[in-house]
Amino acid sequence: MAACGLDEKLFTYLLERAAAPDEATRPLAAMLARAAGMRLSLERLGWPRAALDRLLARCFPGAAAASLRTALEHAPREFPREAEEIPDLVVLLLEHAAVRDETTLWLARAVALACLGEQHLWQDMRLPHRAALTTLLGQYFPSLVRRNTQDMKWKRFLYKQLCEKEAIACRAPQCTACEDYRDCFGPETVPESVGVC
Ligand code: SF4
């Protein structure tokens, strides 16, 4: 099983105390659990403490905010290089937001942080299947979903959008001629013998 960087105990703890453990809340619990598991500094990510408090109060009212803050604020390790892309991913998502409210902002952060996981994006967001992720993205970031006309894998699609913004070319002029084709396209399913981490 691939390491997923998720603090499993914290994920379960949050979900059990969620106001509504639905498909918009699960990614938020996964985001906080991943931040804790990776010992990521929320301040370094630019996520204000007051906004975090509001998120906890609204979505996880049964959770002990003080203990959570301790879990999320314990000595962060050196900021990992891959996390440098999180703000860019958040900006990209918000450019396609249906509404720019705090819920959408947190979901953008949840998607961006899940991109650091090693599985399909829907798995790293702790959703039941790819269709649930597509529905969620379509609800909150509709114009981004409309752009994925080739049904590219979501994580690949998001990074490709970043590359296009920076005018960084893919390794091949056409996807069909690219040796990475299977990594970018095709079903985002999990073999039955492999569980979600
Ligand atoms: S298949 Fe190759 S060319 Fe197409 S998006 Fe993926 S990496 Fe880029």
Can you tag this structure with a few keywords?
197 residues; mainly alpha; 11 helices; 0% strand; globular; binds iron/sulfur cluster
Describe this structure as you would to a colleague:
Pfam families: NifQ. It comes from Tepidiphilus baoligensis. InterPro entries: NifQ. With 197 residues, the chain is an all-alpha fold. It has one domain. Helix content is 51%, strand content 0%. It contains eleven helices and no strands. Helix 1 packs antiparallel against helix 2. The chain is globular, with a radius of gyration of 17 Å. The protein starts with 7 loop residues before the first helix and ends in a 13-residue tail after the last helix. The model has no long low-confidence stretch (mean pLDDT 86). The protein binds iron/sulfur cluster.
Topology:
Elements: H1 8-16, H2 26-37, H3 49-59, H4 65-73, H5 86-94, H6 102-114, H7 121-124, H8 130-140, H9 142-147, H10 154-165, H11 181-184
In short:
The chain has helices at 8-16, 26-37, 49-59, 65-73, 86-94, 102-114, 121-124, 130-140, 142-147, 154-165, 181-184. By secondary structure, the protein is mainly α.
